[in-house]
Specification:
The strands form 2 sheets. The chain has a two-stranded antiparallel ribbon with strand order 1-4. It has a two-stranded antiparallel sheet with strand order 2-3. By secondary structure, the chain is mainly alpha-helical. The chain has a domain at 1-193: Serine Threonine Protein Phosphatase 5, Tetratricopeptide repeat, CATH 1.25.40. The radius of gyration is 28 Å and the shape is elongated. The longest helix is centred in the middle third of the chain and has 32 residues, at 144-175. 71% of the residues lie in helices and 4% in strands.
């Protein structure tokens, strides 16, 4: 009985104008098929590797053979040498760029290698393949109804892969140390994973990254557009409030206060998050509002907000550290020396980003002459 070697259910070969359905097929009885049967009988890894490399060289004119051979080489060395495995996988994709199985295995390998940009690249390419399933042309031999059912089935099979790739790409972006690279990755992610559950998280990450790269005009344009589309997005509103409050130029402190107030309202109304998480979110919004007021020289109002925040943020050392320092600063600014010393002394015991700054400020407060 003749058999056909099928590697994946759907592979899209891209032409300049359209997509066409195909499969990686190595017909039974061909020299390629016979060679692969011999290779599959070999159990020794080194010999099998050599045989596969020879197979790829011998059938270099056959895209399916090159794709399959390099993919198998990639799988063969993935446990011992992820970088080399990635190289083989890239050769497979060079032959057939849209094989979903290979894109998924490359995503796995890139995660192992912590090659964050590559994770995003493979995952987003996979998402494009999946998105184009409904665009596949109907084969002449299949009736319309059967074809529609086939496409629905293929989409259902692809959904877990889509979700996996979205998660892999998001985690890679979140761990990407290069903020400029991260911006590009996020923009690419949001183009192809717009329907993912992680799109909201990616939007928040985008705003935070624009802040990190000091691209304030893009932050404002992007963030406000996102909020207009999703005005009850608590995470996004909070991040935008903080970005406006932290802007060195201080030109939009009024917006920082507006967004922080909105974030407080949304946090109070949040009935889905655990109470501790909700309190931290609300507390951080109070801290942002307090800082914005402090920069506007509205120190008494700032103290009220920062005191409220400090009571809510004790479970989060990083946010608590920031809040205590700013509250201590506000007390010192308003000549409430005893309160300033008390708060700053506590701030020096909190393992957070403002611990050292609190020590320095406490020294200055202790050394300062009382004002009358």
């Amino acid at each position: 009985m003749k058999s056909t070697r099928i590697l994946t259910l759907i592979v899209l070969l891209v032409s300049s104008l359209a997509f066409a359905q195909t499969k990686i097929v190595i017909p039974a009885g061909t020299p390629e098929d016979k060679a692969l049967n011999d290779i599959n009988q070999e159990s020794a890894v080194e010999k099998k590797t050599a045989m596969l490399e020879e197979f790829v060289q011998t059938y270099a004119d056959s895209k399916p053979a090159v794709a399959y051979g390099n993919w198998q080489l990639s799988q063969l060395v993935s446990g011992s040498d992820p970088a080399k495995a990635l190289s083989y996988g890239d050769k497979a994709l060079a032959a057939m760029p849209d094989v979903l199985d290979i894109l998924q295995s490359q995503t796995d390998l890139a995660q192992q290698a912590k090659a964050y940009s590559k994770v995003v690249d493979y995952a987003t390419r996979g998402a494009v393949v999946i998105a184009n399933i409904p665009k596949l042309p109907k084969p002449a031999e299949m009736d319309e109804e059967s074809w529609k059912g086939n496409l629905v089935h293929e989409q259902e099979l692809a959904q877990p892969i889509y979700d996996y790739m979205a998660t892999a790409a998001y985690n890679a972006m979140a761990n990407e140390p290069d903020a400029k690279k991260r911006v590009t990755e996020i923009e690419r992610f949001l183009m192809v994973f717009a329907n993912s559950k992680l799109a909201e998280n990616a939007t928040v990450l985008a705003v935070a990254t624009y802040q990190e790269t000091n691209d304030f005009p893009k932050l404002v344009a992007y963030g406000e557009k996102a909020i207009a589309a999703d005005p009850k997005n608590l995470s996004l509103v909070t991040v935008m409030a903080n970005a406006f409050a932290e802007d060195p130029k201080g030109t939009e402190l009024g917006k920082a206060a507006t967004y922080a107030t909105k974030a407080i309202e949304l946090a109070k109304a949040d009935k889905t998050s655990p109470e501790e998480n909700r309190l931290v979110t609300e507390g951080f919004a109070h801290q942002v509002l307090g800082y914005a007021l402090l920069r506007q020289e509205k120190t008494p109002a700032a103290i009220v907000e920062l005191k409220t925040a400090s009571a809510m943020l004790k479970s989060d050392p990083a946010k608590y550290s920031i809040t205590l320092y700013r509250l201590g600063f506000a007390y010192a600014k308003s000549n409430q020396v005893a309160n300033a010393k008390q708060i700053l002394t506590e701030a020096t015991t909190v393992e957070g980003p403002f611990k050292d700054a609190a020590k320095d400020l406490l020294i200055k407060v202790n050394a300062a002459k009382p004002r009358r």
